[in-house]
Amino acid sequence: MHDFLKTGFGACHCRRVVKLLFSKCMMTALMTVVCLFSIVLSDAQPYRMPRASSDSHVQSAYEANVQKMNRLLQFIRYYYVDTADFDKLVDKGISEMLKTLDPHSVYIPGKDVKRTNEALEGNFDGIGVQFQIVKDTIVVVEPLKGGPSEKVGIRAGDKIIRIDDSVATGKICTNSWVFKKLRGKKGTKVQVTVRRGKEEEPLLFTIIRDKIPIHCVESYFMIDDKTGYIQLERFAQQTLTEFRQAIHSLQEQGMENLIFDLRDNTGGYLQAAIDMVGEFLGKDQLVVFTKNNQSGNRMDYKTQHSGSFENGRLVILINEYSASASEIVSGAVQDNDRGIIIGRRSFGKGLVQSQIPLYDSSVVRLTTSRYYIPSGRCIQKPYEDIENYSRDVINRYNRGELTHADSIHFPDSLKYKTLGGRVVYGGGGVMPDIFIPMDTGKVSDYYYKLYRRNIFNQFALQYANGNKAELMEKYPDFDVFYKNFDCDKAFMQEFYSYAEKEGVYDSADFNLKNYWADFSKKYKDTLNKMFPNMESVTDHHALEQLFLKYIQDQQADYRNREKNFDTEKYIKRQLRTLIARNLYGGQSVAKIWLEEDDTFQEALRVIRTPSKFRKMGIGPVKSR
Question: Does the N terminus or the C terminus of the chain have fewer Cβ atoms within 10 A?
Answer without folding.
Answer: C
